[in-house]
Amino acid sequence: QVLLVESGGGSVQAGGSLTLACTASGFIFSNYGLGWFRQAPGKEREFVAAITWGRGDVVYTDSVKGRFTISRDNAMNTVLLQMNSLKPEDTARYYCARSQGPSATKAAETYAYWGQGTQVTVSS
To answer: Are 118 and 93 in contact (CB under 8 A)?
Structure first.
C-alpha cells in the first residue's frame, strides 16, 4: 500500500520559513519522481516543485523559484520542501505526490498517489 504523509505545515508571518516533509512507504522510493502541489481555498490545485529519481533533477513553478528548494533523502524515504521568504499568496494546503514513474513533471495527471496535505498559512 502506497502511503505519503506530509508534515511541517503551520502558520508564519510573511518573510518567514517552513520546511515541509513527506515520508513515503509501500514502494521503492528511489525509483520514482516526486512532486509538491498546493491548493488555496477557491482556487485550482497548482504545481509547486518536483524532483526526479536518481540524481534528482528539479523543476519549480516560476512564483517560487529562488525561494523554495525541493530535495529528497532516499535513505529516509523522504522528500522535503524548504520554503523561505514566504508570502501571503503562498497560503494553501500543500500536497506531496508520487509520479507514475521515474520522471517528475508539472502535470498533476502524471502523479499516481497523493498525500492528505498539510496546511501552510502566511500572514502579512
So the answer is: yes
